[in-house]
Design brief:
Length: about 120
């Protein structure tokens, strides 16, 4: 009974507290800030892109994309890389609406952004 009296006030302060633990049982201190840091770094790197950069130059600058799509349109190979640049959902998952698309035609960067994607 004494243990319950001591523990009850201590557990009340934990409501709403979430701790991310990986498969090894280790706490991931970077789980929230890392997605924000990644989005910021991606926005910073996007500001340095130029049209006609090669696919390999862009990948070296931007790193691994969150999504990667490829298809043929009118005989041209189109590749779209998506990089997270903002956070809309607090679920920890990256979705395409949180990303900026980069559009390549035949391995050359031709445009980026939502308007460019719609114009394809």
């Amino acid at each position: 009974m004494l243990a319950l009296l001591v523990m009850a006030p201590l557990t009340a302060g934990l409501t709403g507290c979430v701790i991310a633990v990986d498969g090894n049982g280790d706490w991931d201190a970077n789980s929230i800030s890392s997605s924000q840091d990644t989005a910021y770094e991606n926005r910073k790197n996007l500001a340095e892109l130029e049209e006609n950069m090669s696919f390999s130059q862009v990948k070296a600058k931007m790193g691994v994309p969150d999504f990667n799509e490829t298809y043929d349109k009118d005989g041209e190979k189109i590749q779209v890389l998506y990089y997270r640049t903002n956070r809309k959902h607090g679920d920890g998952m990256t979705t395409k609406d949180e990303c900026t698309p980069l559009i390549f035609k035949d391995k050359v960067l031709v445009s980026w952004g939502e308007k460019a994607l719609v114009q394809l």
